[in-house]
Amino acid sequence: MTSPPAQASTSVGIVTPQTAQFDTPIALRSGAVIPRYQLVYETYGELNAARSNAVLICHALSGNHHVAGRYTEHDKYPGWWDNMVGPGKPIDTNRFFVIGVNNLGGCHGSTGPSSINPETGKPWGSRFPLVTVDDWVETQARLANRLGIEQFAAVVGGSLGGMQALQWSITYPDRLRHCLVIAAAPKLTAQNIAFNDVARQAILSDPEFHGGDYYAYGVTPKRGLRLARMLGHITYLSDDVMGTKFGRILRSGTFQFGYDVEFEIESYLRYQGDKFAASFDANTYLLMTKALDYFDPTHHYESGHLSEALAPAKANFLVIAFTSDWRFAPERSREIVKALLDNERNVTYAEVKSTHGHDAFLMVDPYYHEVVRTYMGNIAL
């Protein structure tokens, strides 16, 4: 009697982050210069001999370099896009060499506000300059140079990551063959900027913020960061999902006539806020939201037309939107599609019916995953 064949693993397994040091100064769009910095990144799969199968994953606001796999066998959670990246998954690491990188300004190993400023020997804190999507693309390109990758098979991102992917197609049109822009927009609406500013004000007004130099006081503005995350989390979900998961369920079954947690949704948001505040840096949250606000490819053009801004792009595009995403609604993705079509670029557009709101791009959805799988499967290496 023979044993049945073992089921193929769909996980990249145990992964180890790597660090790249850069001693060449980088001039940021703000005019500030960072003399040296480091980027933390992870890779999955193998780079082929032709170096033609590299895929860059750009992370969203609170993401980082840990895209897939686990650090130990006992890790409770895998990387943030483990359902998308791995052997046999839509972004198949049997075919592709996938790179996840923590952006400059991050708080998970790349140089950021909590890093030591070599000029002072203290954390950068309030001295760390604001960064933009353009700056991130430049640092990612330098990392690609370091890894010997002249051209990506694809640059992929959701939300703020999608904006980075879009900027890649403009800044380095010859360095990517495909661009996947998921749950993103060509620029924020006034409403989105308003949400970000309320979140920032929650942090800036926290008594423990100390002008951004809270590291020296041995404290962190957790209350402000918690409130900022609670606000953000509300906008990432849809009303349908919140209604289905929580409704008006009371924790004790009856009104308590006070301001402590009574409804399950209150408990959920406070839990998410506390969890985030314990693992993320408030200064990084501030600069990430400002990078979102600043992103606008049309900024350099008097016409303000997205079609003109996207004219340099040469990549083939997959643009995906989700019907219940009210923060980056499908019509925002269709603006990108129209501008690309105006330039006669090859564009595939999918509008996925989903109830998960903006966070749908992180969820397992058979149709959505099949769209990505099919597109990635047709990329020639």
UniProtKB/TrEMBL annotation:
Span of the signal peptide: none
InterPro entries tied to this protein: AB_hydrolase_1, AB_hydrolase_fold, HAT_MetX-like
Any one Pfam family match given in the protein's UniProt record, by short name: Abhydrolase_1
Cellular localization per UniProt: Cytoplasm
Binding site residues for substrate: 229, 359
UniProt cross-references to Gene3D superfamilies, sorted A to Z: 1.10.1740.110, alpha/beta hydrolase (3.40.50.1820)
Residue numbers marked as site, Important for acyl-CoA specificity: 327
Catalysis performed (reactions): L-homoserine + succinyl-CoA = O-succinyl-L-homoserine + CoA
Entry annotated with the keyword Ligase: no
AB hydrolase-1 domain span: 53-349
Main location as per UniProt: cytoplasm
Active site (catalytic residues): 159, 325, 358
Highest taxon of source: Bacteria
EC id: 2.3.1.46
One function term, GO molecular function aspect: homoserine O-acetyltransferase activity
Known pathway: Amino-acid biosynthesis; L-methionine biosynthesis via de novo pathway; O-succinyl-L-homoserine from L-homoserine: step 1/1
Keywords: Acyltransferase, Amino-acid biosynthesis, Cytoplasm, Methionine biosynthesis, Transferase
PANTHER family in alphabetical order: HOMOSERINE O-ACETYLTRANSFERASE
Oligomeric form and interacting partners: Homodimer.
Similarity comment: Belongs to the AB hydrolase superfamily. MetX family.
Stated role: Transfers a succinyl group from succinyl-CoA to L-homoserine, forming succinyl-L-homoserine.
Protein name: Homoserine O-succinyltransferase
Name of the gene: metXS
